[in-house]
Amino acid sequence: MEDVVQLLLIEELEDIEVRNRRVHRRRLDPFNELSDEYFIKVFRLSKALAQFLVHLLKDYIAPANRSTDLDITTKLKRFFKVLVTLRFLASGSYQMDVGSNYYFGISQPSVSRCIEEVVNAMNRNEIFNAYVHFPRNIQELNAARMGFFEKYNFPGIIGCIDCTHVAIFPPKVDDDNYPEHIYVNRKNYHSINVQLICDHNLKIINVNALFPGSTNDAFIWNQSNVQTLLRRLHEAGNKNYFLLGDSGYPLRSWLLTPLEYEPRPNIPEHFYNSRHKTIRSTIERCNGVLKMRFRCLLKHRVLHYSPEKASKIINACVLLHNLCIEHNIETPQNEEAEQIDLGVHVPERNHVVERVNPELAAGRNQRNKLITLLQQ
Q1: Whole-angstrom Cα distance, residue 195 to residue 186?
Q2: Where would I find the DDE Tnp4 domain in this sequence (predicted)?
Q3: Element spanning 197, H or E
């Protein structure tokens, strides 16, 4: 009998200890207990912007459910799910680390379900396309062109293009849909090669996160809807709109690249190349800001997801990046930096094809006109 009493006493003491731990580990309310500055550091969005995002996604995220369902995510409020997702995207930490964070205190499976639900909501066409889109009419094209002209005094530019690699966990070798070997890039790690086009303010106006790391930049561009749109625009006589890209892209009248050689100083060609490089660095800065803001995209963080889910996460980060640009959220400072992987560039080398390619000839003609114009 005495042993039974001692056992019951021990169990009672253990229950008290567990309850005490729960009290001490209560979740903090980031909206009320964090300063605005620290909230941005943790979640990348301001409090007002985070609340705007919750409202934006409310129709696509299940509300809290007080049922007896064992799945805790059915009981979590929308804003809580959004904050869990923002913290993961911002930090790139493992889901277990995010869940055990003192803001949340939930399990890894619950974190995973939160991320999937919120990321899927941000990838819905009606949400994503409202904040990430290429100019949709002549008025928007003119506005994009004016933005670059006012900033750089260089006519005709509507965007800068480049690709950046986002590391992913290797897919299964025998995966029929996503065979492992096609995701190995030229730097010998598994990635998605992501095409980005940005405007003069670093806002991303086009993203393509569907191609494996072994795909080169020019191939992705040639499959792009933007490439088709600009070609048709030029064929219709609207030739004063073009992108800037590096030598990994084919020269066209709608995509201007640097001269293939390094001109001697103080001649118009050298001035063109120098200006081209300066303005094209806009997309490199954009890539850097995107990955600094959402560190899950950094090479050493590695997205532990299938390529399909990784692509959705990349899209979600792009949407959030644009919201930050629109709402003037400062870029995170004084954080660990790394060299941003901007892609593998493969210049055109088939000079026989180049001589008989009318689109290439038109591109050279467009570039020569600009060189002449810039020296005036």
Answers
A1: 16
A2: 161-322
A3: strand 191-198
Q: 162 forms bridges with which residues in the sheet? A: 196
266 against 3, higher pLDDT: 266
Q: Which residue has the tokens 């390094």?
A: 262
Phi, psi of 131 (to 5 degrees): -120, -10
Same domain, 25 and 170: no
Domain shared by 313 and 178, yes or no: yes
- 74 and 143 in a common domain: no
Per the DSSP assignment, residues forming a β-bridge with 310 are none
Cα gap 220→316, rounded to integer Å: 20
Place of tokens 């869990």: 84
Q: Which two tokens stand for residue 42?
A: 């943790």
- Domain extent at residue 56: 2-122
Nearest-10 Cα torsion for 20, 23, 27, 33: -130
* Boundary residue ending a domain (82, 97, 122): 122
Confidence of residue 226 (pLDDT cuts 50, 70, 90): very high
